[in-house]
Amino acid sequence: MDIEQQVAQAKLVCEKRGARFTALREQVFTLLAKHNSAVGAYDLLSELQVIDSSAKPATIYRALDFLNQQGFVHKIESINAFVMCDHFSECNHPVQLLICDDCGYVEEIQSENLDLAIRSMADASGFKIKHQVVEAHGYCAKCQSDKN
């Protein structure tokens, strides 16, 4: 799906939810969608300042918080960065990310078996999962072959 289609889908999702997809939120969404890997908030801020020189850190963080709440992006806690969700119309899905420590590539995967295992262990402990993000760090196939 190209960026224009992603923006159109995000607008539809927001409209259905009664959420405001403002011009600023759209700009941040579009900037993030142009990246193939995780991006830090300050890198996005630098890109946004090319468009809007008055943008401040709070500006980018508010926009990213909104996009994260809507399920359009995922925050990668371990590296304090953000990545587009591959299927953001399902904002309550468990998030499983493969993160390359060399090039920064992030792949979102969906493993029903992993989700079931985590939920089963949580249930056995009497724990109710509200939101699930699994981050696995390592090296992508390209970086592995570059090392050989």
Automatic annotation (TrEMBL):
It is found in: Cytoplasm. InterPro entries: FUR, Fur_C, WH-like_DNA-bd_sf, WH_DNA-bd_sf. Keywords: Cytoplasm, DNA-binding, Iron, Metal-binding, Repressor, Transcription, Transcription regulation, Zinc. The keyword Disulfide bond does not apply. It holds the Pfam family FUR. Homodimer. Belongs to the Fur family. PANTHER family: ZINC UPTAKE REGULATION PROTEIN. This is Ferric uptake regulation protein. The lineage of its organism: Bacteria, Pseudomonadati, Pseudomonadota, Gammaproteobacteria, Alteromonadales.
